[in-house]
Amino acid sequence: MSITGPDEEREFLAAYRPEDYHPVAVTVDTVALTLRGGALSVLLIRRAMPPFAGFWALPGGFVRTDKTASGHLVEEDLDEAAMRELTEETGILADSHLEQLATYGDPTRDPRMRVITVAYLALVVDPPDPVSGGDAADAAWTPVAELNLATADAAAGAGARRGRPLAFDHARILADGLERARAKLEYTPLATAFLGPEFTIAELRAVYEAVWGRRVHPGNFHRKVLSVPGFVVETGQVTERGGPRGGRRAQLYRAGDARLLHPALLRPAGEGAEQ
Amino acid sequence: MSITGPDEEREFLAAYRPEDYHPVAVTVDTVALTLRGGALSVLLIRRAMPPFAGFWALPGGFVRTDKTASGHLVEEDLDEAAMRELTEETGILADSHLEQLATYGDPTRDPRMRVITVAYLALVVDPPDPVSGGDAADAAWTPVAELNLATADAAAGAGARRGRPLAFDHARILADGLERARAKLEYTPLATAFLGPEFTIAELRAVYEAVWGRRVHPGNFHRKVLSVPGFVVETGQVTERGGPRGGRRAQLYRAGDARLLHPALLRPAGEGAEQ
DNA sequence: AGAATAGTGTCTGTAAGACAATATTGT
DNA sequence: ACAATATTGTCTTACAGACACTATTCT
C-alpha cells in the first residue's frame, strides 16, 4: 500500500504482463439509423458465424488490439472501431453523426466468453443499399416499425425481423438507441443529421414525425423551427418544384451553428402512439 | 460466409479459446458525488500502486473475470463491479443512485496495456468519511470547486487536487459526470437522491444551487417544485426548529413517484458563473 | 378551377422570472 | 422588536397548441 516513486513506476510497467490477466473481450455495435421512403430504418446484418449464426443483429465486432506480423500494435479508439466494423460488414459510412450510446456487460450476454460491448448511435444520410461483408451473410435497412419493439421503454426481450429475435441483447441496445435519438431531437439539432446539406422545413418535419412516430402540426412546427436561434439558416434558394400534386415551392435551409435548441422542441406528452 | 446450424454452433463454442484473443482489460471508475457542508464534493482516492502512484484518482478497478481456485468463474455485471470497487477502496456505499456514464477507450489512456473503462455516476446521501482500502493509499471527499475544473465543457486537461492533476483521463470523466448530474437535475428528480427520505424545499433548493453552482430564486423555486406532478409529496410534518437565527419552520416532503419532471426545471441560460 | 403544399396571424392557456407581500419562528 | 426563513401573490413576458387564413404552384 505504500506509494512508490518514478523508478518503481518504470520497473512495474516493465514487468507487467497483460496476458496474465482478465480474459475479457470488447466489441462495438452500432445502431445506424436513416430515413428511407419516409420510414425510420435501422441497419441490420445477418450473422454468418456462431454464435447466433443466421440471426439478425446490429453491425459490429471486436475492437482491434492485436499485434500484427511486424509486431506493431494495432490499436484503434472505440469510435474508430465502430466505424470500421460498420463499413466492413455493410459498406455503409457513418459520415453524418456518430455518438456513444452505452456499454453492456451482462456476464451471460455472449456464450463464448466475457464480452462487453460499447454501443454507438450513427445517423446516415440517404444511404445506398448495404453490401454485406466480413462476418455478415446479409445486410439490410429495416424499417423500425417492422420490428416488434412497441416502444423504447418496453421492448428489451422482443425485437425481431421476419419473426426472429435479434442476436445477443441487441433488441435492448436498439431500443436504447431509438430512445436516445427521440430524446435528442428535442433539445439538439440532431434531426438535421438525417438530411443533406440543404433541406426544407417540411423535410425536417418529416424527420421528427418518423423518429417520434407521431404527426407534428405543420404551421406551428414551421414557426417554431425558425424561431429557435441557430437551428437553421436560410439559403435564399427555393425548391425546383412544388409538391407532385401541386403546392407552393419551399424555402431551402441549411443547419445552423447551434449545438443546443433554446427553447427545445418538446415531444407531445401522450404515450407511444405510433402513427 | 455460410450460415451454420445448431450443431456447428455447439462445435464452434466448444473449440473457442478466449485466451487466444484480444489482450484488453476492462475497468470501472465511479464519479461519486455528495453534498458536504453545502458544497458539491467528489470522492477521490490516492493511488498506492503504479501507474500514477501517488496521484489522486476516481475510485475504480478491474472488472472481475477471473477463475477462482475451484475453477468457478467469478463474473460480475459492470454495475456490481462499480459498487464493489467503490466500497473496497473507500468504504462508501453507492446506495442512493448509480448510473452508467460513458466508456473511455483511448488506446493510450493506460500505460500498462489496452484498458477501457466504463465510468459510473453515483450519488451518496450524507456519507461518512471514507476509509481507504485496496489499492487506495488515501481517500477523501473533495469539494468540486477546489478542483481546477472551470466548467464541464472546458476542463479535460485540467483537474487537480492540491495542485496535482488527476490520474489517467479522470479529469475528463469527472467533468462528464458533473455535466450529467447538472443536466439530469433539470428533467428528472435526481436532486432528491442527494437527500435523505424527508427534506424541505430549501434543502432541495440547496442541492440545485450546489450542483448548478448558481443561486436559485427561493420563492419561484418553491412554487415550481410543488407544481410539478410527482416530484415531491407532502408528509404533513414540519421541521423541529426554524433556522438557527430565526425563521419559519418548513414543511417536510418525500420524493414522489415521477421519473421525469414535466415541466422541467431549466437551468438559467448564462454560462458557468460559479457561485 | 381546384387540390395540394408552404407559410403567417391570432387567440388561449401554461409557465418562467421578477418582485413584493405575508406568515412564522428564533434571538 | 427585529432578523431570518418559509410561503404565497401578482404581474409581465414567452411560448406551445389549436385553428384559421393567405400565398403559391401543380394538374
TrEMBL record, chains A, B:
What SUPFAM superfamilies does the entry give? Answer: Nudix (SSF55811), Winged helix' DNA-binding domain (SSF46785)
Record-linked Pfam families: NUDIX (PF00293), WHD_NrtR (PF21906)
Entry-linked Gene3D superfamilies = Nucleoside Triphosphate Pyrophosphohydrolase, Winged helix-like DNA-binding domain superfamily/Winged helix DNA-binding domain
Q: Which residues cross the membrane?
A: none
Entry's CDD domains? NUDIX_NadM_like (cd18873)
Which terms are listed as keywords in the entry?
Hydrolase
GO molecular function (one): hydrolase activity
Q: What are the residue boundaries of the Nudix hydrolase domain, all occurrences included?
A: 20-167
**Which named protein is this?**
8-oxo-dGTP diphosphatase
